[in-house]
Amino acid sequence: MSLLLSPTNVGGLSLNNRVVMSPMCMYEVKKEDGILTPFHFAHYGMRAISKVGLIITEATAVDPDGRITKYDLGLWNDEQAKHFKKLVDWIHYLGGKIGVQLNHAGRKAADAIHPVAPSAIAYSRDYRTPNELTIEQIHQIVNDFGTAAKHANNAGVDVIDIHGAHGYLLNQFLSAVTNHRQDEYGGSLAKRYRIVHEVIQAIKQNYQGPLWIRLSLTDYDDSGLENTMDDWKQVGKWMEADGINLIDASTGGLLNKAPNFPVHDGYQTSFATKLKQSLQIPVSTVGLLDNPGLSEYILQNHQADLIFEGRALLRNTNWLSDAAKELHDHHFKPFNDSYQRGQK
Ligand SMILES: Cc1cc2nc3c(=O)[nH]c(=O)nc-3n(C[C@H](O)[C@H](O)[C@H](O)COP(=O)(O)O)c2cc1C
């Protein structure tokens, strides 16, 4: 029996296997109201039927101006929450588990007329220069995360995954490259972490389930200003103390820069492993892990605790069945007997 496809208890959650559907924006909310559409029920439902261990929804905004685009999901109002509960029930009915990724896009809110950020520095020439957040606005955003967590809690989600990566608002605060503030939310690493600490507390007031966070462990920057792995280890320790149950380790997105080495299968895993070695809590990995043998190798060698699959699951909803064949894992059972008949 493979580790990849066998049950586990990790990050505060029991799962049927170690494959997680990585959060991926679908930009399918054509009405621009942040509400789930039939597309989402089919899209996520299919992954539950194909037995993905945990589905994490695409980045779901806590505030209208926190959307990456106006076609994103939102969880700031009751109507959105009502539909979200239906999705959670739907996935549970199909035997799956589902988490929500909560996000504020900050300066990368492409459709916001007045985007906000820790400092007034634009992401690139194609993006508006954001307004520097006032202290009151920061408190409001912290509250918005708390409100979204209340909706997620009422919906019965299995996990909340805070989006602290890919250059969105919390990542912008954590980095000295994008956070030039002189007040209590900027300066030292501890001060840059303050908003994340407050967001965690605000979420925990309304939700006591497993709480995960996605981080970008490098910005592929050579200015000397980016957080080092030692900084991320310190941040990880604070998160552990704050009650985070798993760090979902990714990279990049803060700056308009690609990896500064040839991208290869599992190219982000060494970052996850370095963090994992200095923490008690589990760390997951993501990024070009389409090859099930590589994913199994990572798990067998304790390089990470869970495998997130993104594009592989967009291409192939039956990725787990195919992985079972490749790994000669005869314990993996498709959704029902009819699907079993599709197995050669
Ligand atoms: C279409 C698309 C949308 C994405 N949207 C998100 C997102 O909403 N939140 C997030 O954390 N990452 C997002 N990502 C990044 C993926 O979750 C994943 O980290 C990345 O694709 C690398 O994994 P992969 O090689 O398995 O695809 C997105 C990726 C794709 C391809």
Automatic annotation (TrEMBL):
Keyword hit for Flavoprotein: yes
Name of the protein described by the UniProt record: NADPH dehydrogenase
Organism: Philodulcilactobacillus myokoensis
Keywords from the UniProt entry: Flavoprotein, FMN, NADP, Oxidoreductase
GO MF, one annotated term: FMN binding
Lineage of the organism: Bacteria, Bacillati, Bacillota, Bacilli, Lactobacillales
Superkingdom of origin organism: Bacteria
Ranges of residues in domain NADH:flavin oxidoreductase/NADH oxidase N-terminal: 4-329
Gene3D superfamilies: Aldolase class I
Cofactor: FMN
